[in-house]
Amino acid sequence: MSLVTHSILISVGSNIEKETNVSKGLDLLQQAFGQLALSVFYESDAVGFTGNTFLNLVVGASTVATVGEVIQTLKNIEVVCGRIKNSEKFSDRTLDLDLLTYDDVVCDSPVTLPRDEILYNAFVLRPMADLAPNALHPQTNTTYAQLWHEYDKSKQRLWPSQFTWSNKVK
After folding, report:
1. Residue environment code for 6-32, b if the CB has 16+ CB neighbours within 10 A, otherwise e
2. Which of 40, 53, 74, 169 has the smallest CB count inside 10 Å?
C-alpha cells in the first residue's frame, strides 16, 4: 500500500522576538515535514490591533498526514515556541501557524480550507503569490498571482524583510 502525499501551504507569522521565533518555527516545521519551500519574508503592520510589526511568510511542504494531524502538529509547534493556548484572536504572537491549503480540499472541519485569510490579508496573499503564483485558489479558480494583482494594496502595508533563515536543521 502506497501512502498518498499531500501538498500543504502554511502561513507563518510572529511579532514577539520574531526572528528567533520564526527561525525556531521553521526548524520545527522542517523536522515535521521535511524539505520546505519558502516565500519571500515580509514585514507588515499588525492587523486588528495595535502592536509591533509582524514577520510573515508562507511555507510549502508535502505530507502524508491528514488535515487533523497537520493542524495538531502546527499547534504543538506554536506551543513549543511560547504561544499561549486560547490567546485572543487579534493580539501579539510568538508564533502563528495556519494551514492555508491542503491540496485542493474545500472543507469546514476540522478547519476551514482554504483559509479565508488568503483573500483578505496581504501578508498571506502576497507570499502565496510568490511561492505558488500559478496555483489556483480552490474556490475562486483564480491563480494566486492574479488574486494578488487584483488585491487593493492600499488596505494593508507590507514590505520585504531583510531577514533570512539560517536553515540549521538538516
Report:
1. bebbbbbbbbbebeebbbbbbbbbbeb
2. 169
